[in-house]
């Protein structure tokens, strides 16, 4: 299986030795997207502003990979204060497709640089022209629901 690293200037550079995203097996695996403004490096005030920026950063990385928020199948939201759950959900819901992806949301997590939220995601790549398998699946296995 091949792996392709994805990088977008529309999202902040990684804070450590990792890729913004990796394409493998017809999926896009996105690292935790923080609410950092990619142009200035500034961290907005409050959970709503950081969640909004994190989701904009996620959308930019997905676009660089050839996917979109509509292609999300799983997200994991790490956030610092369980009391922010409703505020976080209000912003998150505005950006999610219908039906929304599966999700986990562990709270009371210590994040670097005083961040309040970090959002990991997995998306399936849309089918390419002439590709009979969704997301470039080359396994030859067709699963019908």
TrEMBL record:
InterPro entries found in the cross-reference section: RidA (IPR006056), RutC-like_sf (IPR035959), YjgF/YER057c/UK114 (IPR006175)
Gene Ontology terms, MF aspect: deaminase activity
Alphabetical list of Pfam families matching this protein: Ribonuc_L-PSP
Superkingdom classification of source: Bacteria
GO CC term, one of those recorded: cytosol
Protein family (similarity comment): Belongs to the RutC family.
Protein name in UniProt: Endoribonuclease L-PSP
Source organism of this protein record: Asanoa ferruginea
Classification lineage: Bacteria, Bacillati, Actinomycetota, Actinomycetes, Micromonosporales
């Amino acid at each position: 299986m091949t792996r392709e690293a994805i990088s977008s200037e529309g999202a902040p550079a990684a804070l450590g030795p990792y890729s913004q995203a990796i394409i493998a097996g017809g999926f896009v695996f996105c690292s935790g997207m923080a609410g950092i403004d990619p142009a200035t490096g500034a961290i907005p005030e409050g959970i709503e502003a950081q969640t909004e920026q994190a989701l904009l950063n996620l959308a930019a990385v997905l676009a660089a990979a050839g996917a979109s928020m509509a292609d999300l199948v799983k997200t994991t939201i790490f956030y610092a204060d369980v009391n922010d759950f409703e505020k976080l959900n209000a912003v998150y819901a505005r950006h999610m497709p219908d039906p929304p992806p599966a999700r986990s949301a562990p709270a009371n997590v210590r994040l670097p640089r005083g961040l309040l939220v970090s959002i990991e995601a997995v998306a399936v790549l849309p089918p390419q022209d002439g590709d009979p398998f969704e997301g470039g699946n080359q396994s030859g296995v067709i699963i019908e629901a």
